[in-house]
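subagent[fold] <- orchestrator: predict structure for attached chain, return C-alpha coordinates only, no commentary.
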Amino acid sequence: MIGASTHPQPAPPTDLDAWTTSIRNGDRRALARALTEVENRGPRADGLLRALFSFTGKARRLGVTGAPGAGKSTLVSGLCTCLRQSGEQVAVVAVDPTSPFTGGSILGDRVRMQSHHNDPGVFIRSMATRGSLGGLAPATDDVMLVLEAAGYEQIVIETVGVGQAEVEVAKLASVVSLVLTPSMGDDVQTLKAGIMEIADVFVINKADLPGADRLQTELEGMLSLAETQSPVAIVRTVATEGKGIEEWLQALRTHSGRERNQTLYWEGRLFDMIRRRLMEKLMVSGLSQDEIQHSAAEIAARRANPYEVADEIVARLGN
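subagent[fold] -> orchestrator:
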Protein backbone atom coordinates (compact mmCIF):
# COMPACT_ATOMS: atom_id res chain seq x y z
CA MET A 1 0.00 0.00 0.00
CA ILE A 2 1.40 3.41 -1.02
CA GLY A 3 2.40 5.52 1.99
CA ALA A 4 2.28 2.59 4.41
CA SER A 5 4.89 2.65 7.15
CA THR A 6 7.81 0.29 6.71
CA HIS A 7 8.31 0.06 10.48
CA PRO A 8 6.75 -2.95 12.24
CA GLN A 9 3.71 -1.99 14.26
CA PRO A 10 3.32 -3.23 17.85
CA ALA A 11 0.74 -5.92 18.33
CA PRO A 12 -2.55 -4.58 19.69
CA PRO A 13 -3.01 -5.25 23.40
CA THR A 14 -4.89 -8.39 24.25
CA ASP A 15 -7.57 -8.61 26.90
CA LEU A 16 -4.95 -10.08 29.25
CA ASP A 17 -2.55 -7.21 28.48
CA ALA A 18 -5.25 -4.66 29.26
CA TRP A 19 -6.16 -6.51 32.45
CA THR A 20 -2.60 -6.61 33.77
CA THR A 21 -2.10 -2.93 32.86
CA SER A 22 -5.23 -2.01 34.79
CA ILE A 23 -3.94 -3.90 37.82
CA ARG A 24 -0.60 -2.12 37.61
CA ASN A 25 -2.40 1.23 37.31
CA GLY A 26 -4.35 0.75 40.55
CA ASP A 27 -7.73 -0.34 39.19
CA ARG A 28 -9.24 -2.01 42.26
CA ARG A 29 -12.03 -3.67 40.30
CA ALA A 30 -9.50 -5.25 37.92
CA LEU A 31 -7.47 -6.35 40.94
CA ALA A 32 -10.48 -7.93 42.63
CA ARG A 33 -11.36 -9.83 39.44
CA ALA A 34 -7.77 -11.05 39.16
CA LEU A 35 -7.73 -12.29 42.75
CA THR A 36 -10.99 -14.17 42.19
CA GLU A 37 -9.59 -15.73 39.01
CA VAL A 38 -6.42 -16.81 40.80
CA GLU A 39 -8.19 -18.07 43.92
CA ASN A 40 -10.62 -20.15 41.87
CA ARG A 41 -7.86 -21.44 39.55
CA GLY A 42 -9.71 -19.97 36.60
CA PRO A 43 -8.65 -20.52 32.97
CA ARG A 44 -6.74 -17.22 32.81
CA ALA A 45 -5.07 -17.46 36.21
CA ASP A 46 -1.75 -18.83 34.95
CA GLY A 47 -1.58 -16.23 32.18
CA LEU A 48 -2.15 -13.43 34.68
CA LEU A 49 0.50 -14.73 37.04
CA ARG A 50 3.02 -15.09 34.22
CA ALA A 51 2.38 -11.51 33.12
CA LEU A 52 2.59 -10.06 36.63
CA PHE A 53 5.50 -12.04 38.06
CA SER A 54 8.24 -9.64 36.92
CA PHE A 55 6.62 -6.88 39.00
CA THR A 56 6.79 -8.84 42.28
CA GLY A 57 9.35 -9.28 45.04
CA LYS A 58 9.49 -5.73 46.46
CA ALA A 59 6.72 -5.70 49.08
CA ARG A 60 7.29 -6.33 52.79
CA ARG A 61 5.15 -9.21 53.97
CA LEU A 62 3.97 -9.13 57.57
CA GLY A 63 2.59 -12.40 58.93
CA VAL A 64 0.15 -12.33 61.86
CA THR A 65 -0.84 -15.63 63.44
CA GLY A 66 -2.16 -16.92 66.74
CA ALA A 67 -4.96 -18.80 68.42
CA PRO A 68 -8.65 -18.04 67.74
CA GLY A 69 -9.94 -15.13 69.82
CA ALA A 70 -6.51 -13.60 70.41
CA GLY A 71 -7.60 -10.38 68.67
CA LYS A 72 -5.65 -10.73 65.43
CA SER A 73 -8.17 -8.93 63.21
CA THR A 74 -8.50 -5.97 65.57
CA LEU A 75 -4.73 -5.73 65.77
CA VAL A 76 -4.38 -5.85 61.99
CA SER A 77 -6.98 -3.11 61.63
CA GLY A 78 -4.98 -0.92 64.01
CA LEU A 79 -1.78 -1.75 62.14
CA CYS A 80 -3.39 -0.63 58.87
CA THR A 81 -4.29 2.69 60.48
CA CYS A 82 -0.69 3.27 61.58
CA LEU A 83 0.72 2.32 58.18
CA ARG A 84 -1.72 4.63 56.41
CA GLN A 85 -0.69 7.51 58.66
CA SER A 86 2.78 7.00 57.19
CA GLY A 87 1.33 7.21 53.69
CA GLU A 88 1.97 3.57 52.82
CA GLN A 89 -0.27 1.42 50.63
CA VAL A 90 -1.49 -1.63 52.54
CA ALA A 91 -3.07 -4.90 51.45
CA VAL A 92 -4.49 -7.44 53.88
CA VAL A 93 -4.99 -11.11 53.11
CA ALA A 94 -7.28 -12.42 55.87
CA VAL A 95 -7.86 -16.17 55.97
CA ASP A 96 -11.00 -17.59 57.57
CA PRO A 97 -11.89 -21.22 58.23
CA THR A 98 -14.12 -23.17 55.90
CA SER A 99 -16.96 -25.19 57.40
CA PRO A 100 -16.31 -28.93 57.02
CA PHE A 101 -20.08 -29.44 56.80
CA THR A 102 -21.32 -26.76 54.38
CA GLY A 103 -18.09 -25.68 52.70
CA GLY A 104 -18.96 -22.07 53.51
CA SER A 105 -16.99 -19.46 55.41
CA ILE A 106 -18.12 -16.52 57.52
CA LEU A 107 -15.18 -14.31 56.45
CA GLY A 108 -15.54 -12.37 59.69
CA ASP A 109 -12.17 -10.64 59.37
CA ARG A 110 -13.56 -8.24 56.78
CA VAL A 111 -16.39 -7.32 59.15
CA ARG A 112 -13.86 -6.29 61.82
CA MET A 113 -11.99 -4.05 59.34
CA GLN A 114 -14.95 -2.00 58.11
CA SER A 115 -13.27 1.24 59.22
CA HIS A 116 -10.93 0.94 56.21
CA HIS A 117 -13.68 0.22 53.69
CA ASN A 118 -13.54 3.66 52.03
CA ASP A 119 -9.76 4.09 52.19
CA PRO A 120 -8.29 3.72 48.67
CA GLY A 121 -4.90 2.99 50.24
CA VAL A 122 -6.12 -0.19 51.94
CA PHE A 123 -7.18 -3.32 50.07
CA ILE A 124 -8.65 -6.18 52.10
CA ARG A 125 -9.09 -9.65 50.67
CA SER A 126 -10.79 -12.37 52.68
CA MET A 127 -10.06 -15.96 51.72
CA ALA A 128 -11.42 -19.28 52.92
CA THR A 129 -9.08 -22.14 53.78
CA ARG A 130 -11.16 -24.53 51.62
CA GLY A 131 -9.99 -27.38 53.83
CA SER A 132 -6.30 -26.56 53.54
CA LEU A 133 -4.14 -27.08 56.62
CA GLY A 134 -1.35 -24.80 57.79
CA GLY A 135 -3.43 -21.70 58.58
CA LEU A 136 -3.55 -20.41 54.99
CA ALA A 137 -5.67 -20.90 51.88
CA PRO A 138 -4.35 -22.93 48.92
CA ALA A 139 -3.97 -19.90 46.64
CA THR A 140 -2.41 -17.57 49.21
CA ASP A 141 1.00 -17.62 47.51
CA ASP A 142 -0.43 -16.52 44.16
CA VAL A 143 -2.76 -13.94 45.71
CA MET A 144 0.27 -12.36 47.39
CA LEU A 145 2.07 -12.10 44.05
CA VAL A 146 -0.90 -10.32 42.44
CA LEU A 147 -1.07 -7.82 45.31
CA GLU A 148 2.67 -7.17 45.05
CA ALA A 149 2.35 -6.55 41.31
CA ALA A 150 -0.47 -4.09 42.06
CA GLY A 151 2.05 -1.96 43.95
CA TYR A 152 1.16 -2.54 47.59
CA GLU A 153 4.19 -1.78 49.76
CA GLN A 154 3.03 -3.61 52.88
CA ILE A 155 1.07 -6.85 52.73
CA VAL A 156 -0.35 -8.27 55.95
CA ILE A 157 -1.15 -11.99 56.04
CA GLU A 158 -3.57 -12.85 58.83
CA THR A 159 -3.86 -16.60 59.24
CA VAL A 160 -6.87 -18.52 60.41
CA GLY A 161 -6.84 -19.22 64.16
CA VAL A 162 -4.06 -21.77 64.45
CA GLY A 163 -2.58 -24.31 66.81
CA GLN A 164 0.81 -25.90 67.26
CA ALA A 165 1.67 -27.13 63.79
CA GLU A 166 0.21 -24.50 61.44
CA VAL A 167 3.43 -22.74 60.45
CA GLU A 168 2.97 -22.17 56.70
CA VAL A 169 2.97 -18.38 57.17
CA ALA A 170 6.69 -18.55 57.98
CA LYS A 171 7.36 -19.51 54.36
CA LEU A 172 5.58 -16.44 53.01
CA ALA A 173 6.24 -13.61 55.46
CA SER A 174 9.28 -11.38 55.93
CA VAL A 175 8.44 -10.99 59.62
CA VAL A 176 6.01 -13.14 61.63
CA SER A 177 4.08 -11.89 64.67
CA LEU A 178 2.55 -14.44 67.04
CA VAL A 179 -0.39 -13.04 69.01
CA LEU A 180 -0.89 -14.41 72.51
CA THR A 181 -3.21 -13.45 75.36
CA PRO A 182 -2.82 -13.68 79.16
CA SER A 183 -5.57 -16.31 79.28
CA MET A 184 -3.26 -18.81 77.59
CA GLY A 185 -1.27 -19.40 80.79
CA ASP A 186 0.63 -22.68 80.70
CA ASP A 187 -0.47 -23.28 77.11
CA VAL A 188 2.66 -21.39 76.07
CA GLN A 189 4.70 -24.43 77.00
CA THR A 190 2.58 -26.75 74.87
CA LEU A 191 3.03 -24.48 71.87
CA LYS A 192 6.79 -24.14 72.23
CA ALA A 193 7.76 -27.00 69.94
CA GLY A 194 5.64 -25.77 67.06
CA ILE A 195 4.29 -22.38 66.21
CA MET A 196 6.33 -20.57 68.89
CA GLU A 197 9.49 -21.22 66.90
CA ILE A 198 8.44 -19.19 63.86
CA ALA A 199 7.76 -15.91 65.69
CA ASP A 200 9.99 -12.87 65.14
CA VAL A 201 7.73 -10.65 67.28
CA PHE A 202 5.52 -11.80 70.15
CA VAL A 203 2.42 -9.67 70.71
CA ILE A 204 0.77 -9.98 74.11
CA ASN A 205 -2.69 -8.66 73.29
CA LYS A 206 -5.36 -7.88 75.89
CA ALA A 207 -2.42 -6.88 78.08
CA ASP A 208 -4.79 -5.09 80.49
CA LEU A 209 -6.01 -8.48 81.73
CA PRO A 210 -4.54 -10.32 84.73
CA GLY A 211 -1.69 -12.64 83.79
CA ALA A 212 0.04 -10.38 81.25
CA ASP A 213 3.13 -10.01 83.42
CA ARG A 214 3.32 -13.74 83.97
CA LEU A 215 2.98 -14.45 80.27
CA GLN A 216 5.77 -12.02 79.42
CA THR A 217 8.01 -13.62 82.04
CA GLU A 218 7.34 -17.06 80.56
CA LEU A 219 8.16 -15.80 77.08
CA GLU A 220 11.37 -14.15 78.24
CA GLY A 221 12.37 -17.35 80.01
CA MET A 222 11.65 -19.45 76.95
CA LEU A 223 13.59 -17.10 74.69
CA SER A 224 16.60 -17.12 77.00
CA LEU A 225 16.90 -20.87 76.41
CA ALA A 226 16.14 -20.82 72.70
CA GLU A 227 18.75 -20.70 69.98
CA THR A 228 17.52 -17.92 67.70
CA GLN A 229 19.31 -16.37 64.73
CA SER A 230 18.08 -12.87 65.56
CA PRO A 231 16.55 -11.12 68.59
CA VAL A 232 12.85 -11.71 69.17
CA ALA A 233 10.80 -8.73 70.29
CA ILE A 234 7.93 -8.79 72.82
CA VAL A 235 5.31 -6.03 72.71
CA ARG A 236 2.14 -5.54 74.74
CA THR A 237 -1.08 -4.26 73.20
CA VAL A 238 -4.73 -3.62 73.93
CA ALA A 239 -6.06 -3.74 70.39
CA THR A 240 -9.60 -2.61 71.20
CA GLU A 241 -8.19 0.65 72.60
CA GLY A 242 -5.41 1.08 70.05
CA LYS A 243 -2.74 0.82 72.73
CA GLY A 244 0.67 -0.54 71.79
CA ILE A 245 0.00 -0.66 68.03
CA GLU A 246 2.65 1.95 67.23
CA GLU A 247 5.17 0.07 69.36
CA TRP A 248 4.29 -3.12 67.48
CA LEU A 249 4.80 -1.40 64.14
CA GLN A 250 8.15 -0.07 65.32
CA ALA A 251 9.19 -3.60 66.28
CA LEU A 252 8.16 -4.84 62.83
CA ARG A 253 10.09 -2.04 61.11
CA THR A 254 13.30 -2.53 63.08
CA HIS A 255 13.27 -6.31 63.05
CA SER A 256 15.22 -7.71 60.14
CA GLY A 257 13.20 -10.92 60.20
CA ARG A 258 14.63 -14.34 59.67
CA GLU A 259 16.65 -14.99 56.59
CA ARG A 260 14.10 -16.54 54.25
CA ASN A 261 15.68 -18.98 51.85
CA GLN A 262 14.01 -17.96 48.59
CA THR A 263 15.62 -20.81 46.66
CA LEU A 264 14.21 -23.35 49.12
CA TYR A 265 10.82 -21.62 49.02
CA TRP A 266 10.63 -21.71 45.22
CA GLU A 267 11.80 -25.31 45.16
CA GLY A 268 8.74 -26.22 47.20
CA ARG A 269 6.50 -24.00 45.07
CA LEU A 270 7.76 -25.61 41.87
CA PHE A 271 6.95 -29.07 43.20
CA ASP A 272 3.43 -27.88 44.08
CA MET A 273 2.94 -26.37 40.62
CA ILE A 274 4.23 -29.49 38.88
CA ARG A 275 1.94 -31.73 40.96
CA ARG A 276 -1.07 -29.60 40.01
CA ARG A 277 -0.19 -29.69 36.33
CA LEU A 278 0.30 -33.47 36.42
CA MET A 279 -3.09 -33.89 38.07
CA GLU A 280 -4.68 -31.68 35.42
CA LYS A 281 -3.04 -33.78 32.71
CA LEU A 282 -4.34 -36.95 34.34
CA MET A 283 -7.87 -35.56 34.39
CA VAL A 284 -7.62 -34.67 30.71
CA SER A 285 -6.39 -38.19 29.96
CA GLY A 286 -9.65 -39.61 31.27
CA LEU A 287 -9.13 -40.16 34.98
CA SER A 288 -12.50 -39.59 36.62
CA GLN A 289 -13.73 -39.38 40.18
CA ASP A 290 -15.87 -42.45 39.51
CA GLU A 291 -12.77 -44.41 38.53
CA ILE A 292 -10.94 -43.32 41.65
CA GLN A 293 -13.90 -44.31 43.83
CA HIS A 294 -14.21 -47.68 42.09
CA SER A 295 -10.49 -48.36 42.48
CA ALA A 296 -10.65 -47.34 46.14
CA ALA A 297 -13.52 -49.77 46.75
CA GLU A 298 -11.59 -52.57 45.03
CA ILE A 299 -8.52 -51.82 47.13
CA ALA A 300 -10.54 -51.69 50.35
CA ALA A 301 -11.96 -55.13 49.52
CA ARG A 302 -8.44 -56.37 48.76
CA ARG A 303 -9.39 -57.18 45.17
CA ALA A 304 -6.80 -54.71 43.87
CA ASN A 305 -3.33 -53.64 44.89
CA PRO A 306 -3.01 -49.87 45.52
CA TYR A 307 0.60 -49.78 44.33
CA GLU A 308 -0.31 -51.43 41.05
CA VAL A 309 -3.32 -49.13 40.57
CA ALA A 310 -1.17 -46.05 41.19
CA ASP A 311 1.45 -47.27 38.71
CA GLU A 312 -1.23 -47.85 36.05
CA ILE A 313 -2.66 -44.35 36.50
CA VAL A 314 0.75 -42.67 36.35
CA ALA A 315 1.65 -44.73 33.27
CA ARG A 316 -1.11 -42.91 31.40
CA LEU A 317 0.98 -39.76 31.47
CA GLY A 318 3.44 -41.40 29.10
CA ASN A 319 0.78 -42.31 26.55
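orchestrator: received. Logging for downstream: The beta strands are 60-66, 90-96, 122-128, 154-158, 175-180, 201-204, 233-236. Confidence is low (pLDDT under 50) at residues 1-13, 99-106.
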